[in-house]
Design goal:
Blueprint (H helix, E strand, L loop, with lengths): L3 H23 L9 H20 L3 H24 L2 H27 L7 H28 L4 E3 L7 H12 L7 E3 L2 H30 L11
Antiparallel strand pairs: 1-2
Length: 225
């Protein structure tokens, strides 16, 4: 019988990757349209559920992730309905904590894997990359919530969630278009940290796993032959 962790490694990573792509790249298409909150809410629920499933682990870990996901999901619907600052904080803090923890859990599992590299393991590695981008997006939103004006937007005064998804990915990949600029010290510090993490992650982990997959899995992430 497969353990939750083994089940997640076998089936969960590609599902998580699919929902992450939907949240980051399909979700923004609903911005400004009727039913935006509901459609984004469906994506939020699906992403949180697939992340918990992919993380697997002990009951205690599942409960922790469940609590963080609850703050995230409830915060999303309540801030869309009432706009209250407490719900905006719950949404962004819950999202940042939840996705960062899932990324850490999956990264540990991938690094300690002793099997040959599979497409599912590569999907998990890419998912961790996107999880990092989403976690930083919510951290940026928290900074802006705490200190309005921490970011300058070239085309308007306000911002929406897709703006920070976009800015986080631009920073993670070190593109740096410059249409969103961090002004406050904390915003600049987080942006610098993400800009360092992105290339290091891709170079050290994802490129290694892809290379191992192409070579037929003669090596493992843990360095065992």
């Amino acid at each position: 019988m497969l353990t939750p962790g083994a089940l997640a490694r076998r089936y969960g990573y590609s599902g998580l990757l699919t929902t992450l792509f939907a949240l980051m790249f399909v979700g923004p298409l609903f911005a400004g349209r009727e039913g935006e909150a509901l459609m984004l809410g469906v994506l939020v629920i699906c992403t949180a559920g697939s992340a918990i499933y992919a993380a697997g682990g002990s009951p205690a870990k599942q409960v922790t992730l469940g609590i963080l996901a609850l703050f995230y999901v409830v915060g999303h619907f309540m801030q869309a309905r009432t706009g209250g600052a407490v719900w905006v904080f719950s949404y962004n803090a819950g999202g940042a904590s939840f996705f960062a923890l899932v990324a850490w859990v999956l990264l540990q599992r991938i690094l300690s894997a002793t099997t040959h590299v599979t497409g599912e393991l590569i999907a998990g590695s890419i998912a961790v990359y996107l999880l990092l981008g989403i976690a930083f997006a919510y951290l940026f939103a928290l900074v802006e919530l705490h200190s309005p004006g921490s970011f300058a937007f070239a085309d308007r005064a306000g911002h929406a969630d897709p703006d920070f998804y976009y800015y986080s990915l631009v920073t993670l990949t070190t593109l740096g278009y410059g249409d969103i600029t961090p002004l406050a010290p904390m915003a600049r510090g987080l942006a610098a940290l993400e800009a360092v993490i992105g290339p290091v992650y891709l170079t050290v982990l994802v490129a290694r796993l892809v290379g191992m997959h192409i070579s037929g899995g003669s090596d493992t992430p843990g360095g065992q032959q």
